[in-house]
Amino acid sequence: MKSTMKFPVRTIMAVLLAVVMLLGVSVVKPVEAISVGPIPVLKHGSEVTAKINILGSTVAQVPDQVMDILDNLTLHIKQMSDKEGETPYDYFSLALAREGDPAVTVSALMSEDGSVVVDIPELFDTTITLKVDELIKELFGQMLSQEGFPSLATLQKLDVTSFMHTLTGVGQVLSENVPEGVAGTAETFNVENLSAELVPTTHTYESADLQKLTTDVLEFLKTDPGFGQIYELIIAPMNAQDENIAGKTVAEFIDKIKEDAVNNFANKSIVAVILADAEGITRGFDVKLQTEGESDTEIVAISLAEDNVTETELKIMSPNAEMSRVLLVSNYDAEANAYSGTMSVKMHASSEPGAPTKDLIVGTFDKLSSVPFGASLITLGDVSLTIEPGAPMDPITLLYSMEGVDGDDGHYQGSFALKDVAEVALDVKEIKADGVEIPVQALTSKETKEIASMNDLQTLVTPEVQQRLLKVLEALGFSFEMPPSTTTP
Q1: Residue 418 forms beta bridges with which residues?
Q2: Long-range pairs, 414-420, Cβ under 8 A, ≥24
């Protein structure tokens, strides 16, 4: 079979260059307060209690009955993960209640083989074992199995650490292949209200440079364990009919596509301009993709800062499309790694230089910071974001607040709200490693019913289950009738 794979290597390489440069640009400081980094925690969990309070305003296209049902509804969510043992497990439970005891509780145990054991005692006398891979294949048709669509169990085998090593290695190859720069004279660059003298340094990737860079990247990937795993688990199975891949090792695959990939850069060039301030700090970049000297696409990003004000502009230009310009402005003060101030995201009304901007998002933040929470971080402080979609839609304001509970480590309280419409009161607790007790035995020792097809799912909905479901819905505030059961309860 003839190959159908396309390798837009030139575009991919330009994007990679832009990403590497963007990482060197000073971006809006408050973003650091809500960033999430990889934290190697193998055993962790959390408990969240969320109570919904409808504030009175109506929402277009949402029936009043639905709003009434949501009012005073309480959700109790527990999540636990244990990757320390020989068999890793993830556990999730959700309890819904309006008053008093929960009307329904759903528990789910996920194991590495891709199966999910579900327990809903208010509806079923047995647990349900969902064969997720089989259900997905049936839902999405034969195409998935024919194309080698990766199963859940396969995806769980992917090593995130190896993948991060792959990205780091590619970045290292890119940095080692940067052509010698030619420094220019300082120029004045403007964003919105800020301006700065920046020195441009131009790095020109001629066709031969790009071909060598492509070769070096592909040679790195040929022996990189992270890419090898992705190739074996995802790329090869999903492209089993492609002559470049079928029956080939990752090294053979790289060798097969290398010539075509390198030839993508015939008569092509990339001009990358790094913009740095007087202290040598990178403040922006300008990347142009060219064919025989004519510009195809240009990506520009500049971030300027002065007296706790940061303005960042991103522009994307192409010969056949109007230029896109997005502006991010932040004005903030920092105290003890907590940020307070204002921010806005704007879009230029047109592509003309100096064109006025229109607010898309306007926000304020107070004492914004982040602290470790399980395997990630939790954001503390107060945030208000107003989204202005424009006529005929009215502005929408989102509110978020979260703070620690004094004297109770890992315990936080706050809220999330759609202003004047609804508020969700939040109580969040971290489950430390010594408190993670996943009820594996309790869930796996019960009688279970295996669900591997849509027909299996349909057999679950018996008249008795319908009657039980009716009682659950009534307890949650629904009011409608269902046909009477034809079986004895």
Answers
A1: 398, 422
A2: 417/55, 420/55, 420/56, 420/57
Q: What are phi and psi of 278, to 5 degrees?
A: -65, -25
Q: Which residues contact 119 (CB under 8 A, 6 or more apart)?
A: 106, 107, 108, 127, 128, 443, 446
Question: Residue 148's pLDDT is what?
Answer: 55
Beta bridge partners of 386: 362, 397
Alpha helices in 95-206 (DSSP H): 132-140, 142-146, 152-156, 160-176
Distance CA 183, CA 304 (A): 20
Residue 339 CA to residue 308 CA, distance in Å, equals: 10
Pick from 171, 307, 154, 292: which is nearest to 232 by CA? Answer: 154
CA–CA distances in Å: residue 200 to residues 162, 192, 286: 36, 20, 9
Residue 208 one-letter amino acid? A
Mean pLDDT of 352-358: 66
Terminal Cα-to-Cα distance of the chain (whole angstroms)? 60
415 or 142: whose pLDDT is higher?
415
> Helix, strand or coil for residue 24?
coil
The maximal CA–CA distance of the chain, rounded, in angstroms, is 88
pLDDT over 70 percentage in the chain: 79
Helix (H) or strand (E) holding 234: none
- As a residue count, the chain comes to 489
pTM for the whole structure: 0.72
Q: What are phi and psi of 62, to 5 degrees?
A: -115, 115
**In the chain, what are the domain boundaries?**
9-452
* pLDDT, tens only, 120-163: 999 999 999 988 877 777 766 544 444 556 665 666 666 767 78
